[in-house]
Amino acid sequence: MNAADLFRLLLLAAIWGASFLFMRIAVPVLGSLPTAFFRASLGALGLLAFLLLMRPLWNYQGKFRACLILGVINAGLPSVMYCLAALVLPAGYSSIFNATTPLMGVLIGALFFSEGLTTSKAAGVALGLFGVAVLTRTGPVDFDLPLLLGAAACLVATTCYGFAGFLTRRWIGPLGLDNRLVAFASLVGASLFQLPLFAGSLAWQPPTSWGGPTVWLSLAGLGLVCTAFAYVLYFRLLADIGPIKASTTTFLIPPFGVLWGALLLGEPLTWDYLPGCLLIGVALWLVVRQTAPIASRRNA
């Protein structure tokens, strides 16, 4: 990996880490569902502007509806879950829980998609879930029902990411569709999914305030930078260094999430994070390292 690729990898982690900060600013003012809707819709508009400049061949090969459905699973529902979690969890917590995405992918692959499971991956999943439990008990936030509900919302989001990865490979992968088109359609699908939820939230309990410049700058950062621009940056990394190395950004997001929360929101930066983070970090290493599947070893 050259210096330019490493810089883009760190930049992407810093941007996605900041997304938890922006949600933490916007959600208490606007509410979870409006924030999630504005993130998806602004992201879709930002990507549309980018695509109009790049002028790609708009050919979905009959998979536009599949891309919309993937958008619900990969962006629509997870965004709602993280915005709900932002009501009760510091930005650092949500970013750490987000790092369990590879663990959920391994578990879902083994349970639903007949993926080979290694001893290392199985141990990683078990250790990672234990790390989540440790973080909720030893972290700087009091252990109570809101904390558990926020953690559960984050794990629902990472479970959606796990399913979306396998469904994308099954529905879209063999066709070689332009990733930028898939990303745009996904955000359109997420926006359409969230639109009735957004409208319902306005009818049921509209925001007492629509916020000021800080809130709307946070929404712009969330939608245009952390979603639209981040997608473009991520797909550039996929092309340059491949999916395995690009996925290492998962390891780098939590430190940035904790750092931004501490610097800009005054969230606690203590050693209380360390035990759970170390367990989750070791679990991720067990999951991503290359080993032979158990079935293959038994047949050898």
UniProtKB/TrEMBL annotation:
Residue span, EamA domain: 9-136, 149-288
InterPro entries per UniProt: AA-Vitamin_Transporters, EamA_dom, EmrE-like
Its membrane topology: Multi-pass membrane protein
One Pfam short name: EamA
Compartments in which it is found: Membrane
SUPFAM superfamilies xref list: Multidrug resistance efflux transporter EmrE
Keyword annotations from UniProtKB, A to Z: Membrane, Transmembrane, Transmembrane helix
Transmembrane annotation, as ranges: 36-54, 66-89, 95-113, 122-139, 145-169, 181-203, 215-234, 246-265, 271-288
One GO location term (cellular component): membrane
GTP-binding recorded as keyword: no
Annotated protein name in UniProt: EamA domain-containing protein
Species, as recorded: Aquipseudomonas alcaligenes (strain ATCC 14909 / DSM 50342 / CCUG 1425 / JCM 20561 / NBRC 14159 / NCIMB 9945 / NCTC 10367 / 1577)
